[in-house]
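Hey,
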Amino acid sequence: MDKKLETLREAYKSVPIPKELDDVIEKALQQKPKPVRKKRFYIWPASVAAAAVLFIGTVNVSPQAAHAMSKIPVVDKIVDIVTFTEVKEERHHASIDAKTPSISGLKNKDLQNSLNSKYAAESKKLYEKFASSDAAKADNKGYYSVDSTYKVMTNTDTILSVQRTIQETQASGYIQKRFDTIDKKNEVFITLKSLFKNDQYVDVISQNIIQQMKHQMETEPGKMYFITDEDMDPFKKIKSDQSFYITKDHKLMISFNEYEVAPGVMGPVEFEIPTKILKNVLVGDRYIR
């Protein structure tokens, strides 16, 4: 690894994640993370996983890290989000290539800091898994790799939607996508539930997705979804906090991780929900129209 990146990595590793981080995130984001459905994807042992970029606040407290950071080029300079840093490392039969985002420019510092702390905490946890994986140890066979990156899905005057993707590969692979959506004008975190008047949206959206799944399976060879009674765990409805993002055209996109509603060959899948079927359950048309 480049010496400057190594310096920054070690400096970041020495900074503990605040114990109150979960409370800060929960208060600012008004939601709790839920476990991914586990019936269809391969669960790696605790000693196998990973990826990472390092801890966000360090540049403010460590001159060494700040100096190293000044030498690392920053890319993707988009209005409210930049690449904080990228880490590439190989260790025996394990490797990582990880980027982490950093949101800036919000006056709501509680929200901004909680999101950036969440990204850093995720990355730190992934790095610790990488470092302790069997594939990263000498005289161990096997293979493990992880790619962690992000993509700005929407960046308008009103909305910022950020997608983070983690792809882990061992004997098989698993792709996980996570989304955050922010109202840039009011500087609040948008949850799926906050878009709707009541819980009816769960059934409305779910019914439309099942219709789309059936249509795709009938018209597109190779498309397959877990929606029949013969499936071990057929898709019935979305979670109340299902992953989503909002497009620049104000359309609602519902996202599913790999294996969540379809075979692994389908990868992660997403569905655009027609606004016309949501009109009666939407709080308003500020975001979705």
